[in-house]
Design brief:
- This protein is of the alpha+beta class and 177 residues long.
- It is built from five helices and three strands.
- A three-stranded antiparallel beta sheet has the order 1-2-3.
- The protein is elongated.
- The relative contact order is 0.07.
Amino acid sequence: TAAAVAGAAHGSRASPVPAVMVTAPSNEEADNERAAAAAAVDLQVGDTYRDRKSRELESRIAKAQTHMEEVQAKLAGYFHPPPDLEEELEELRGELEAMRLEKRHFEHHVETTDSWWSTIGQWSARIQVADYVQEERTGKVLPLYVILVHRINDPDAIGWVVARPLSAFEMLRKKLK
């Protein structure tokens, strides 16, 4: 800690803090905690999937942040922290970053879906290119269609390009039957 470092600088000796073994909860305990959190999240009436998922992600992030702060507080008590605590802290940082990334991906998906739904019926798909390509695995020559998807009557709108073989359209037709 800062006090231990300051004491060492003035010639006094910091008393060593005993090593404490920190164990992660067992899989069963972690599963029970997740189930309890999910049940608490699902109890609110009238929520959409988006609301429940968002709250669940925020709750998981908050718990991970709290756990990480607890480990950091334990580490602050050591002049020479044990490696297992430092490893746990690094693992928690990675998990927390992964959860934050998952939340950002979810938020982006929600924004994209909302944007798409708000413009439903205003989209156009046009075959831009029809060509033949040789499949790498089998060497067969197959038709490939490049499709341009964009908003109708909006030349500045962003769209996207999709390339699909004829077989993809055949599968789609079978699924829609």
